[in-house]
Amino acid sequence: MTKNKTVSAHQISHENVDKLKDISGVNVYACYQCGNCSSACPAVEFMDIPPHQIIRKVQLGFIDELLESETPWICAACITCTVKCPRGVDIAKVMEALRQLVLRSDFEHGNLCEIEDKLRKKLPQIALIGNFRKTIL
Amino acid sequence: MQLSYYPGCTLKTDGKNFETSALAVLDRLGVSVSELEDWYCCGVCFSQTQDNLMQQVAPVRTLVKAKEKGNPQLLALCTMCFNTLKRSIEFIKNDSEKMDTIHQFMDLENTQFFGDEIDVVDILTLIRQIGLEKLKEAIVKTDAGLKIASYYGCMLLRPKEIAIDSPDDPVILEEILESAGCENVYFPFRTECCGSYQIVNKPNIVKDRAKKIVNSAVKNGADLIVMLCPLCYFNFDEIQLDIKKEDASFQTIPVLYITQLLALLMGLDPHIQDFNLHAIDPRPVLKRKGLL
Questions:
Q1: Which residue among A32, A49, B65, B75 is least crowded, i.e. fewest CB within 10 A of its CB?
Q2: What is the C-alpha separation between B70 and B88, in angstroms, rounded?
Q3: Residue B33, φ and ψ in degrees, nearest 5
């Protein structure tokens, strides 16, 4: 059993809730927590918060907590979650918006110099540019 | 049939085999494609933000070039490019406000673009348009008896607005391979993500994905995996050697672009393909099946 969490007002950031809505254009309140997204996600085992819980936390306004999460940076935008959602919630867009919320204040997530030398020489352009598009503003 | 063709960056380098084989196959099927004289990187990953039009400038500039070229259909072989161009069109069409803003950031482009003038097509849809009967006629090696695991990846199937087939249960690759005389292998991971660009910073995710997907194809008795995406191809090919080092029981399987296989089945000169680009050499299995 996980410990019950106490919810307090300071966890809720209304400003970021609005920003997230503007960036993603998604109505997260349509979600009824069926968990289809998390069961379909091919990378869920690498995430610290599964996709359906991300949406729940967005509904509750706990955006600051999500900005610390690794989940949006594990998501590779394969859109499986969005296709599986019976309520039409575009979860992939919410993930993108969470990445953007971080990048719009930090410009870069992770360190580009950390790419292994051996790998960098072989990577096709498509991998590098894709990665830059998601991790640099 | 005349089409414009947008190769994208990777098909000119790591994905050369895809380009040369696809153009040869289309030539045999009587389709002439002409590459855009001027094209730009599409941006690879479609930006899913609603409020940042800057990210749409790159794909729209290429679409403007396609409009200037005159053909209504634009062939995008690379699936990442296909996805990005197609989603960009979906995002801006019938929205004059967005297009006005984008035009303000494209000083060098003089042609007005509205969003719905260009139809971006992928090679599978194109082959279906040409006709599976015609494909069947072009196949000369009908008795190869290859067992194929066809891998779709994400970009042709999701999101559903731009999907070329059902996102849940696509059949188009299997139909084409069946017409080409191959046996399709049931393969539950065929539409799953390979980890995409995470290969750059989080290669372990890709390794885990590749292992599951390849294992499933091998267990179901496939001789080859065929696919269309140059990024999936990269994520499946060489990484198998790394997995093999860690797990001796892991069985490797060659990976080919579908057009490479079709070109061989059509009896086209194998020298148009550079098999040295493959980390897992497909030549032994191709020779065994009489294709080389």
A1: A32
A2: 19
A3: -115, 140
Q: Is B76 helix (H, G, I), strand (E, B) or coil?
A: strand
Model ipTM?
Answer: 0.94
CATH number at residue B95: 1.20.1050.140
Which domain-ending residue is among B123, B158, B188?
A: B123
Domain interval for residue B272: 141-288
B170: left (phi over 0), alpha (psi -120 to 50) or beta: beta
B203 touches chain A (CB under 8 A): yes
Tell me the pLDDT tens digit for each residue of B212-240: 999 999 999 999 999 999 999 999 999 99
Q: Which domains does chain A have, with CATH numbers?
A: 9-106 (1.10.1060.10), 109-137 (no CATH)
Mutation target vs A (from B82, B98, B199; most A CBs, 10 A cutoff): B199
- Cα–Cα dist A95/A75, whole Å: 7
Q: Whole-angstrom Cα distance, residue B269 to residue B11?
A: 20
Assess contact for B265 and B140: CB atoms under 8 A: yes
Q: B9 and A135: CB-CB below 8 Å? A: no
Residue A58 Cα to chain centre, angstroms = 10
- At B148 the three-state DSSP class reads strand
Q: B25-82: per-residue pLDDT in tens? A: 999 999 999 999 999 999 999 999 999 999 999 999 999 999 999 999 999 999 999 9
Tell whether B216 and B278 lie within a shared domain: yes
Subunit contact B50:A92, Cβ cutoff 8 A: no
pLDDT band at A8 (very low <50, low <70, confident <90, very high): confident
**pLDDT level of residue A2 (50, 70, 90 thresholds):** low
Which of A23, A76, A100 is opposite residue B196, by nearest beta carbon? A76
Residues B85 and B151 in one domain: no
B48 inside 8 A of chain A by CB:
yes
Nearest C-alpha neighbor of A100 from the set A7, A16, A35, A28 = A16
**B169 lies in some domain:** yes
CA distance A7 to chain B (A): 30
Q: Which residues of A touch B50 (CB under 8 A)?
A: 22-25, 93
Q: Report the CATH number that the domain containing residue B273 is assigned in CATH.
A: 3.40.50.11810
Same domain, B22 and B79: yes
CB pairs under 8 A between A and B: 134
